[in-house]
Structures are given as C-alpha cells and as structure tokens.
C-alpha cells in the first residue's frame, strides 16, 4: 500500500479494536488492547514522518486513552500534551479544553491535585476569555474542578463549584438532563459526608 493509505488503514483498524474494547465485545481484552495500541502507534508514526498534523490530535488522544486505561500515565500525558499543542496551534479551543481535562484527570488520579487544579483552571479560562462557546464543556470542567477540591477536602470550594456547575446545567439543559443528575449526586454526597443530611436528602 502507498504510505498515505497505510496510515489510514492503521487508524481504522486501531479504531475498530478501540470500539470493541469500549463495547466490551472483545473476547481477549488485553490482546486487543495491545493491538489497538500498535495500530495507533503505526498510524501516528507515519503521520509524524509525513508531517500530517490535521486530525493527528484525535489519534494521539485515542492512543493516550488506551495508555491511561493501562495505568501508563506518563505515556498518556505525553500524548495528550502533544495533541493539546496541535489543537492550540489550530485554534481548536473546544477540543483543547477536552485535552486539558484529560491531563488534569491523570494528575488527579496520581494525587497531584494542585497540578490538576491548574489545568482545570486553564481550561475554564479559555471559555471565560470567549475562545470557546460550548457551555456543556464549561459546566463539565467546573464539575471536575469541584471533584478535585473535594478530594483535597477543600469542601467550601467544592460546594461552590458543584453548585455553579449545577446552576449552569439547570439553566441550559433543564431538570431532566443526565448532567443535572450528576451534579445533584455530587452535591448530595458532599453534604452527606459532612452530616448535612437534610441538605443531602434534598439532592
């Protein structure tokens, strides 16, 4: 196959294996996870060699998520960071927010809460500076920020952020939206942890 077609084929096969893993249709999870990684690696290597950067961030994110699932956090962070650089160069701020959230999530998982907070705050600033208009992205990031405050036992900051996310979601999506249920559950858990059972029951 011509090399320009080969990377497309590798990407497609990698996506097939990745989707099988997501849908738990894989009979041999670890083997197919390794195959997905190998095909994405091949696709990325070819595209880097040819300097084909358009859409490369998606491949990097796909591979990063597989490494993250394996607990290979440093490799995942490197891939997410490379994708973030590409997105920022292209002015794709909606997806840049997603990559910042990916990076923050890994730092949170590693107990590096301050670094996670910085990344979430960086993502929020993109929206607040008017570079992104996806309100769902904004509310999701605030909710994630609250989760990190919660893990740090900074309960006042967590409550404030959970409530802000909830208010946005209620206004934009209505009471029956699943994201509203997530915010309500988070607030309820926070109040229950502090013995504020009357407040918890209201959520």
Radius of gyration: 19 Å
Low-confidence stretches: none
Order of helices and strands: HHHHHHHHHH
Helix percent reads over 70%
Q: What best-fitting shape do the alpha-carbon axes yield?
A: globular
Strand content: under 5%
Structural class: mainly alpha
**Total DSSP E strands:** 0
Give the N-to-C terminal Cα separation: 58 Å
Count of discrete alpha- or pi-helical segments spanning 4 or more residues: 10
Mean pLDDT: 91
Described by strand count, sense and barrel closure, the largest sheet is:
none
Walkthrough of the structure:
With 203 residues, the chain is mainly alpha-helical. The chain contains ten helices and no strands. The mean pLDDT is 91.
Summarize the structure.
Helices cover about 80% and strands about 0% of the residues. By secondary structure, it is mainly alpha-helical.
């Amino acid at each position: 196959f011509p090399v320009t077609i080969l990377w497309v084929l590798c990407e497609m096969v990698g996506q097939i294996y990745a989707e099988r893993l997501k849908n738990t249709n894989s009979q041999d999870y670890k083997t197919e996870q390794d195959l997905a990684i190998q095909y994405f690696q091949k696709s990325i290597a070819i595209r880097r060699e040819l300097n084909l950067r358009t859409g490369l961030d998606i491949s990097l994110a796909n591979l990063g998520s597989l490494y993250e699932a394996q607990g290979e956090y440093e490799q995942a962070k490197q891939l997410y960071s490379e994708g973030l650089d590409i997105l920022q160069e292209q002015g794709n701020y909606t997806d840049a927010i997603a990559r910042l959230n990916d990076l923050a999530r890994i730092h949170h998982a590693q107990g590096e809460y301050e670094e996670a907070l910085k990344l979430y705050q960086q993502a929020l600033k993109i929206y607040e500076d008017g570079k992104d208009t996806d309100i769902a992205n904004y509310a999701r990031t605030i909710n994630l920020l609250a989760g990190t405050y919660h893990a740090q036992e900074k309960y006042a900051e967590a409550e404030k952020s959970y409530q802000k996310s909830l208010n946005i979601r209620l206004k934009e999506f209505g009471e029956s939206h699943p994201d509203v249920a997530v915010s309500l559950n988070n607030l309820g858990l926070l109040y229950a942890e502090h013995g504020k059972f009357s407040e918890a029951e209201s959520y």
